[in-house]
Amino acid sequence: MSLGSDQRKFTKMVGKLILFAYQQGYELTFGDAFAKTGHVADSFHYKRLAIDLNLFKDGIYLTATADHLFLGEQWVKMGGTWGGNFTDRSGRPNPDGNHYSWGE
Fold it and tell me: What is the CA angle 34-40-16, rounded to 5?
């Protein structure tokens, strides 16, 4: 697949994930969807294949990785990569719970 087709698939899948979150009674706002700096080298944000989603329940901003678990598990089922499963170079957990990417 080309980068463009990957980006279009990613956008479609993010739409489905957003609908899923709202069906569960949550709300979202966008964090970083495209960035040129501020992330690790070769970040999927730079390729428009990653998004950070800010999660809310009953108007409360949920920041813990555990808060995103239900959404992360759904994203992985859909074929994406969830930042809640990230590890550092030595294999230790290094979660980024609000990060959802495609194609990693």
Answer: 40
Q: Which helix (H) or strand (E) is 104 found in, with range?
A: none
Q: What kind of fold does domain 3-101 have according to CATH?
A: Muramoyl-pentapeptide Carboxypeptidase; domain 2 (3.30.1380)
Task: Spell out the residues 6+ positions from residue 34 whose beta carbon is closer than 8 angstroms to its own.
Answer: 45, 46, 48
Supply the pTM of this predicted model.
0.92
Tokens standing for 96?
Answer: 């980024």
68 phi/psi in degrees, rounded to 5 = -90, 0
CA distances to 2, 9, 91 from 52, in Å: 23, 17, 22
Structural tokens at position 64: 């813990």
* Mean pLDDT value across residues 81-101: 94
Q: How high is the pLDDT of residue 55?
A: 98
Instruction: Write out pLDDT tens, residues 23-55.
Output: 999 999 999 988 777 777 788 999 999 999 999
